[in-house]
Amino acid sequence: MNIILLSGGSGKRLWPLSNDIRSKQFIKIFQKKDGTYESMVQRIYRQIKETDETAKVTIATSRAQISAIHNQLGEGVHISPEPCRRDTFPAMALSAAHLTDIQGIDPEESVVVCPVDPFVEKEYFEALKALSVQAGKGEANLVLLGIAPAYPSEKYGYIIPEKEEKLSFVKTFREKPTAQKAKEYIEQGALWNGGVFGCKLKYLLEKAHELMDFTDYQDLYDKYDTMEKISFDYAVVEKEPKIQVMRYAGQWKDIGTWNTMTEAMEETVVGKGIMDETCKDVHIVNELDVPILAMGLQDVVISASPEGILVADKEQSSYMKPFVDQMDGQVKFAEKSWGSYRVIDVESDSMTIKVTLHAGNSMNYHSHRHRDEIWTVIEGEGRTIVDGMEQKVKAGDVITMSAGCRHTVIAETKLKLIEVQIGEEISVQDKEKHELE
Amino acid sequence: MNIILLSGGSGKRLWPLSNDIRSKQFIKIFQKKDGTYESMVQRIYRQIKETDETAKVTIATSRAQISAIHNQLGEGVHISPEPCRRDTFPAMALSAAHLTDIQGIDPEESVVVCPVDPFVEKEYFEALKALSVQAGKGEANLVLLGIAPAYPSEKYGYIIPEKEEKLSFVKTFREKPTAQKAKEYIEQGALWNGGVFGCKLKYLLEKAHELMDFTDYQDLYDKYDTMEKISFDYAVVEKEPKIQVMRYAGQWKDIGTWNTMTEAMEETVVGKGIMDETCKDVHIVNELDVPILAMGLQDVVISASPEGILVADKEQSSYMKPFVDQMDGQVKFAEKSWGSYRVIDVESDSMTIKVTLHAGNSMNYHSHRHRDEIWTVIEGEGRTIVDGMEQKVKAGDVITMSAGCRHTVIAETKLKLIEVQIGEEISVQDKEKHELE
């Protein structure tokens, strides 16, 4: 099975755990059987592999997420990075070109496209396999997964099938309706459109070439920013006469907000948290190392991270985006390919961060114009290179770097350091990369 | 007017703002007219001085609070420190001896004793003045302030006066009653006992010498730990036949819990916090530098500090003590006479703290057996002394101190530094003080 997972969006509705560079897909919040935690993307990838160990998975995502994906899934996964945001149709076209031109997959094979963020169980992946098989038969150009509605939701589009059977041709589509309309559609056998479909790879490529002017993957990648922003639904689905829908009646939760996220969580407390016995339907997700005490609350989600603290009625939390948009956009925590960093103190003319490097990794060799930096190694062993001079370092060692000085650290074991930045203009933009001489 | 302010208690019911060494009295939470904030102890001290600028104020407190009191009130205030906790009777006896033996106040003068934590306005202090004057007349040995009950509370003891007049002799006392009983008492003209009274200083001293064996202030201080734990109410008030009560019908709020604390706050948000329009009767008190977003909550208090995060229904928050007792007791923030410190990162073999020194102040000259320390100055100027070697330091300078090495820093301006502690046994107990050679 070939699967394209669409992993997009800024995830602001799961603030403070998601930020501009760490999206909701990467938050380790789902407890596994062994007690450790996995993220949305790790969970879905594991589930796909458990259902079909030969599945070829390609993640269509923004460039900013590449490091996080490799950190969480290893190097085996294919990534089709979008140079910039251009809505779902260009993203799918680019991924399809990636599958054929980069991965060498036969365009006659079928492919399943689905978002990364539903919370689902094994039966869902069995349905994706069936979808892939059905798409391969060529009875229709597109085979959609139609989700049996759990309630007359106003949040989803509806698929109206010709017949109320497991497999049917699609009669028509309906945009997000009122609850009353939704009820009527459901009485006619309508299904939710979760954005999941199967088709032959060549179908995607043909549509891409019909609507966009490019030769191959690299060409499309290079001129990606000139492409029109258009959704796959609008560009393709609504115009396609030959569409089938497969009915899926298993578990399916769209984890876009805290409300649905907490429904999918096994545990009510992740991280340090205590609730009194009068709390009811409360969830605590705490990434800080200070404890949270919750008392006398009901239907509330509490989440704390280096970015901030959310305390919200679960239903109300869906409306957080405008408030999060107001907040100071400084990223206080980030996962990188080489490790992670966390801002631990901010003053007017200084900033202190904790940097963690994975064993065998290093930062870019870089310098800053407007700040001095002091590293104090607190754990592990490695080497630093400062203006070309290399030295071994271990816990307790201090390295001082004046503005302009080129520097990097190479972790031999897992290595942690406290970096104090001192200067009147501290900014993430003040960074020049250099080749190691 | 002579006033003894009783400033005791661990203040765990205002966690996370109070901790073992910072009590609720010192939290700067009350907004002044100029927009800055003052603490409970600053507010009451200012109010006393505004009512009677010649008032002599003595604060009876634990030794741990001396630094915080001088930081907040300056050096002009008298402090009668208790060497250890011994309930209110020994504490008052010690303060009374402090007034006569250390401050030289005539035992014929009257003194007013009151707790530091009611939230009150000018009229209260006028009442204290009247109490002091009445005590000076000698009509009774004790003159209590009786607070006109706002509702039939089960939290207070009641004073039953002989007559329902502004001034009356006391008929009897009643312990904390049921609401029904409280209602009956109030119908008989009963008043709350807020622990506020006036008497002649010599009365306190006589009672002290009757019940405890000591010669003078220093003698009592030295043998304080041998004194029996006994309350002033039990030792004196209940046995005294000649007690008057002055009726006080003005504002009086006892700020012992978040519920009453938030009632006394001018503003609903102190620190970084945003509420959506669906929040009702919500208070945010945030000492962290990350924002708090509250949505869809009602009657909730949210408070965050380096010690932890509280999210509680206001009523329910009164029951927090057992939960706070469970928490790891490591103090993450402290005010000292020389400045303050805050823990910003904790790892298994290292701890990083931010230290702020007031201009002109220094730490003790000290050393640690089991940890190395590295200071990076991030703001200000001063001098360090390390194993007797003195050097000037400024922002950007780094000082490394191996275990065993003696060190201090003297702030010439306000000075901030990041201290990284490295060692396998990091503990506040690992500290030896030395004389500067």
Put the structure in a nutshell:
The first copy, chain A, is α+β, with helices and mostly antiparallel strands. Helix content of chain A is 22%, strand content 35%.
Write a structural description.
Chain A has 437 residues and is α+β, with helices and mostly antiparallel strands. Chain A is built from ten helices and 30 strands. In chain A, strands 20-21-22-29-24-27 form a six-stranded antiparallel sheet. The longest helix of chain A has 16 residues, at 122-137. The radius of gyration of chain A is 24 Å and the shape is globular. The mean pLDDT of chain A is 92. Strand 17 of chain A pairs parallel with strand 19 of chain B, so a sheet runs across the interface.
N-to-C span of chain A? 46 Å
Secondary structure tally: strands of chain A: 30
Question: Assembly type of the shown chains?
Answer: homodimer
Specify Rg of chain A, calculated over alpha carbons: 24 Å
Helix segment tally of chain A: 10
Mean pLDDT of chain A: 92
Approximate helicity band of chain A: 10-25%
User: Strand order, biggest sheet of chain A?
Assistant: 20-21-22-29-24-27
Low confidence ranges of chain A = none
Given the helix and strand composition of chain A, which structural class is it?
Answer: alpha+beta
Interface with most residues? A-B, 59 and 59 residues
What share of the residues of chain A does DSSP label as strand, in percent?
35-45%
Globular, elongated, flat, extended or rod-shaped: what is the shape of chain A?
globular
The major β-sheet of chain A equals: 6 strands, antiparallel
